[in-house]
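pasting for the record
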Amino acid sequence: MAANLSHEVAAPGLGGPLLGNRDFDFLREFVLAHCGIALSEQKRQLVQGRLLRRLRALGLKDFSAYCELLRRDPDAEMGDLASAISTNVTSFFRESHHYDLLEQTLLPQWLAEKRRSGGRLRIWSAGCSTGEEPYALAMVLAEALEKHAPGVDAKILATDLSPQALAGAREGVYPVDKLGGVSAERRRRWFLRGEGSYAGLACVHPRLRELVAIQPLNLLHEWPMSGVFDAIFCRNVVIYFDKPTKERLFRRYAGKLVPEGYLFLGHSESMHGLNDDFALVGRTVYRKKPA
């Protein structure tokens, strides 16, 4: 019985309450329904340790009180909950072959077409975390615009569920030692080095900010965007989702891409057996099939 009463037993080595069966079962169902993330029994200790920080931040005495908060107002805590149970690991130009494909092939083609037609170019960074991905995309896009089509209307939408991650992306300030994937030339051009109390930090160039719109979005909820995208980057995001959620998400992505638009996944992710709307055309690169 004590296992169901999370406030009665201290979490071993964590200095806090134990996550009991009843509360963990609720959290598993809640997270699956609202975030599409499937938590196994093996994740209990991880969830307990990470959510203890939320309990302390909110001044709650136990996990039952936290679960009650989620029942009362799920939207208010959704981003912080998702941040706590997922791992935001990202870097500039991670999986560089995707950026090479954009720079060398796709952007020159797209921009030539947009210049002729007067159309817009749109890229979506879905699950943008702290901003490294969309700002890396913005570097490549800014350079391509200068070279191929300065007048084309081009923008990057960057979305994430985590308020903390979005705050970091909006700030656009990174430790210099986190710029390892950025070439020396791009560092000089696209970052402003901090001085004095800001020494050791680098801020993204205002031009990159102009190209990137940062917005909160839960991928499982309604999408407010009315237009379509030439490419969607959703890398190292669906790895957390169960199969039905992945299937629904891939169908929705297909509906938000232009004909023969591109979807980029992470290195450990695959669409195999989950969707027939796309064809694999490169390493974790998928193109929407013609209608």
